[in-house]
UniProtKB/TrEMBL annotation:
This is Small ribosomal subunit protein uS19. InterPro entries: Ribosomal_uS19 (IPR002222), Ribosomal_uS19_CS (IPR020934), Ribosomal_uS19_SF (IPR023575). The lineage of its organism: Bacteria, Pseudomonadati, Pseudomonadota, Alphaproteobacteria, Hyphomicrobiales. The keyword Oxidoreductase does not apply. Pfam families: Ribosomal_S19. The gene is rpsS. Gene3D superfamilies: 30s Ribosomal Protein S19, Chain A (3.30.860.10). It comes from Candidatus Hodgkinia cicadicola.
Length: 79
């Protein structure tokens, strides 16, 4: 179910404060929306097992951090 249209996008205050003085930001918060202040920063987003590094670009604005850190491995069957 999507977020209501009358609500603003969710951005964690802790991440917003860190983006002003850090280049690498490690977070477990996958539901934070990517805003223009994050462009050029590197986020390490937790996927349940490890942290995946994500370099934020302008085409990622409006998406969530969790959309770029996959939680499942691709299934490989023997051929």
């Amino acid at each position: 179910m999507s977020r209501s249209t009358w609500k603003p996008p969710f951005v964690s205050n802790k991440i917003l404060k860190r983006c002003h003085y850090k280049v690498n930001i490690r977070t477990w918060n996958r539901s934070t929306f990517i805003i223009p202040e994050f462009v050029g920063k590197t986020f390490e987003v937790h996927n349940g097992i490890m942290f995946n590094k994500i370099k934020i670009t302008t085409s990622m604005i409006g998406y969530k951090l969790g959309e770029f850190s996959f939680t499942r491995k691709p299934c490989m069957h023997s051929g």
